[in-house]
Amino acid sequence: MKLTVIGFWGAYPEAGGATSSYLLEQDGFSLLVDCGSGALSRLQHVKPVKELDAVLLSHYHQDHIADIGVLQYAWLVQNVMHGTRDILPIYGHQEDPEGFQSLSHEYTKAIGYDPNQTLEIGPFSITFLLTKHPVPCYAMRITDGESAIVYTADSSFQQSFIPFAQSADLLITDCNFYGEQDGSAAGHMTSKEGAEIAKKAGVKTLLLSHLPHHGTHGQLLTEARHYFSGEISLAKEGYTFES
Ligand SMILES: [Zn+2]
Ligand SMILES: [Zn+2]
After folding, report:
1. DSSP three-state, residue 24
2. 135: confidence class by pLDDT, cuts 50, 70, 90
3. pTM above 0.70, yes or no
4. For the chain, how long is the longest CA-to-CA vector?
5. Staple 137 to which of 59, 95, 100, 197, CB 3.0 to 4.6 Å?
6. Residue ranges of the Metallo-beta-lactamase domain (predicted)?
7. Up-side HSE of residue 97: CA atoms within 13 Å toward CB?
8. Which domains are assigned to the chain?
9. Closest ligand (CA of 131)
């Protein structure tokens, strides 16, 4: 299983960047997890848009879905140019009916997932956990049967992340705040909270993502290292993880 960070910013992308978006690849299958602002442009440094096999969304905040509209245009243009009628499946939860319906377009199809069931997409099996966020949002545990990647999506701290992330090869946490700040009102976590989950869940690698627009990101890494002795990285565009 290979993960590539396409975008890591919280809220909005800084110059040349993108907000939350991650590409997962296995056995020639490409799954885009979240599709934030700038993601479509950044994705094309790694993969042609038409080579995506599916998209999976955690929730309907703009920093996770802003580029769905232009992704739909890209599939329309590419299909017309090549005389094809390929449809891209976009998986989302159905607790925001308007958001969910917007995933269907001429060449994209909205598919609802049931967060209480394991979802199979290509070679991936995905289980979900409701997060603590102002709107319904789901964390994901994605496995290919051998290794596991856990993505908290957007959330403030909750104990249930610890069993959910147990022994994961890679844990990607929402790290929108610094160690001594309190991100809970905004529905986000700190470096310290992400590291605490990593430690208690016994994950191999921690990736701090959904990064803030204030402070110095290096400090997030220093703070996390106080609590977790495993490997820790700061998300950046082009970061890859293979397991
Ligand atoms: Zn959000
Ligand atoms: Zn977000």
Report:
1. strand
2. very high
3. yes
4. 56
5. 59
6. 18-210
7. 0
8. 2-242 (3.60.15.10)
9. 1
